[in-house]
Predict the 3D structure of the following.
Amino acid sequence: MSELENFLNKNNLSQKSISIICNSWNEEITIKKKDYLLKKHQKENYLYFVISGCIALVIENENKNSVLGFGYTNSIITSFISFTTETPTELSLLGVSESKILKISKNQLNQLVNSNSEIAKWYHTIIEKTLVGHLKRQIELITLSPKDKYQLFIKRSGHLINSIPLKYISSYLNMTPETLSRVRTSIS
């Protein structure tokens, strides 16, 4: 069974809907470390499923790059604002490790959503979970101490600690690499 099938099996979809999605979501690409899946100012036309590796959702500017999130093995990522509004993105999708990705175009996804109510409900749930996750993250960034942010990151995404550079994790946690180092030292 493929990684995508395993992922979809955890989402209360019938085997028929899983088969329909897998047959449509079948274009595989490889992104090398430090290569872009999407660059700032491009229009996002795809929803991605990460088979393996890690992709960072990044705000890039002259002074500082900030990581907003990660797409890692068995997760979905895109620039949702651009994907939804069909406008150029202010974000980039950057490979932080070599990654294998499946992509489905917005048109293909819309066809699935419009023709299958179960798939429509599944996609709606993905959007809701993404929104809730981003809002919770904003609250955590404002209210938690660096140590608490790191411990929560370990709880949720500890598998990333040894597979991606710590500079991406410190950026995601909105702390300097030095602060992350001190936090890690104080915990171990």
Remarks:
- The mean pLDDT is 94.
- The chain is about 50% helix and 25% strand.
- The first strand starts at residue 27 and ends at 31.
- The beta strands are 27-31, 36-38, 46-52, 54-60, 65-72, 75-77, 92-95, 99-105.
